Amino acid sequence: MKVFKALTIAGSDSGGGAGIQADLKTFQELDVFGMSAIVALTSQNTLGVHDVFPQSVEAVVSQIEAVATDLKPEAVKTGMLFSSDIIEVVAEQIKNHELDNLVVDPVMIAKGGGQLLQDDAIDSLVKSLIPKATVITPNLPEAARLTEVESIETISEMKKAAKRIHEFGAKHVLIKGGHLSSDQKAIDLLYDGFTYYSVSAERIDTKHTHGTGCTYSAAIAAELAKGHGLHKAVNKAKHYITCAIKHSLPIGSGIGPTSHRGHRLEV
Asked: Which one from 211, 215, 243, 256 is the annotated catalytic residue?
């Protein structure tokens, strides 16, 4: 039996709703064997990020090398990378080990407002990591930050941002429209350098959306690991994250997490 494998390179969320924990839960739910390289520890719960403890460059390199040389993954996703130094070595390891199907989730700010990417690391993200991406998955605030505009509030502005980010070198850009003002649909925009594709689903009325970005990008990576093309992987991942939000968990005193088993609760 073929075992499909995916590696997440990201931060640990002690609250379990996002980061490495969300990625591994997603891989498991989608029948992919999950592996991890932890770049930072966060003290985090539904109320926000309380502390960030980055790992050393040596620790990050050692984890990736251990996985890549023995359990080479069919897909890789990156999440919170925190610093320029870490981004540079992650990009180098991806190149050295010829790791394919790279999903880059450019995590910058936590839902509670905690900074998860240092300001001086954005240049490294643009120059070193994004050009290696099969797909990059920014939300609207992240896309605005990458393209140096104040905000993105319309589909037209999403298209402009997608085109600009594609020019950084990513094969595909998926801009997530969850922050759009819309009562009907949650619309994402996928761009391949030639054509814009709308990926939509019902908008779920809930505040409990902690970990949606991590979970969505992990689901894309899992589907790529199983051999699906990018468009099919995104559509399957969109269904998965919609179910996860629909069955989100009202736990804690703040913004609760999505349910990674939500897809199993749909008839």
From this structure: 211
